Amino acid sequence: MGAADHGLRGLSRTQKLVLATAVAAVAAAWTQRKRSRPSSPSDKKDSQRGSPPGGLAVVPSKEKCAAINLEFLRRMYKLLHILVPGPFCKESFYLVMVAVMMVTRTLCDVWQIRNGTSIETAIISRDTRGFNKYLGRFALLMVPIAMVNNLLKLGLNELALCFRARLTRHLYKEYLTGFTFYKVTNLDNRISNPDQLLTQDVDKFATSLADLYSNLSKPILDISIYARKLADNVGGLWAPAGMLAYLAASGVFLTWMRRPLGKFTVREQKLEGAFRHVAARIITNSEEIAFYRGNEREADWVEASFGGLEKHIRAVMHFRFGVGMIDTVVAKYMATIVGYYIVSRPLLNLSDAKHMAASHKDLQEEYYRSGRMMLQMAQAVGRLVLAGRELTRLAGFTARVDDLQGVLEELQRDKYKRSLVRSSSRMKVDGEGGGGGGRRRTRC
């Protein structure tokens, strides 16, 4: 204890504040992880309260793990073969186009940093000729830079649309092959809401995948380019190595903290689909409901279905609130602190021979150039760390779409599964083969 107290007394006020912030972030992360537990049995009963009448309720299948692991990579590899069937398809063209635009945009950012530093130096030095020269260059390149930025956005939107179109056509082809569409809802209950999966989930999966391609590739490209520039300006690889070490540590910490988001995404989409199914059933069976005066009972089912969805969304919002605070501190503010510390080391080292004879103007120009590059690199590190949040969410959509495709493939081979509950006994039926020639095994 004495050595620890002595070590704490040796720290400055700023270092103590940073240490306290790190400890608070770890404590908050642990608290959020403890609160993000699976739904209780009572929650599952509430979610089944809106089941169709007749004493026969559907038992939901066990949710597959939706996390960043080898299973996620296997699912993604399988789906990418559908989304990008070959090197000469239009999806490949847009992938290359987005990559080229990202490289061009990063080079434009580097040029803007250098040109902006030259403009500020000319202003401080009262150099009118230099000021007009560098400002004129910036005016000439405004339109090309704006075109690069918007071409990047256009490429990402086209890529997301191509992914959605390719996957939608593939899944509908499987869905409408033979009597698969009939088997999904009548012989198998693993997919309770195919309309939700075929429309909204596919759209969100395609958009999330295209955004993730940009959110991962652009920061990695920025880090590699700025690391090389900083190594030349600051002198040595220790500056980019320090930022990359912080990236690795913060990435592992935040990935561990965000793991429940994948399961939350899967459950949210299932509840959205169940609520959509209840609403669609009222429209489909409106005549029967009116004849039997079942409007009050339907209102109870709608309230039960939406109540479960509302409760889950509110729990996810509270979890994301805590995670978002920690994300902001770790990926933005702490990364900026690390960046400032790395940039200041050579300039604050009074025994550094490189800066001993430098003038105030030279030191200021080097600080602006290196500081802006380090700030851009710190922001890229923060974006890369925060991309893990989108990656975890994508894992949930990937699990949903892959489950749908797997069920459709099995139904085309006349393999189906159906789990039913009648009063207190559970009956599971596994069917294989078509018509009456198949095998049926019933366990009560």
UniProtKB/TrEMBL annotation:
GO MF terms held by the record: ABC-type transporter activity; ATP binding; long-chain fatty acid transmembrane transporter activity
Residue ranges of every copy of the ABC transmembrane type-1 domain listed in the record: 79-347
Keywords: Membrane, Transmembrane, Transmembrane helix, Transport
Coiled-coil features, chain-numbered ranges: none
InterPro entries per the UniProt record, alphabetical: ABC1_TM_dom, ABC1_TM_sf, ABC_transporter_sub-D
GO CC term (a single one): peroxisomal membrane
Keyword Membrane: yes
Designated name of the protein: ABC transmembrane type-1 domain-containing protein
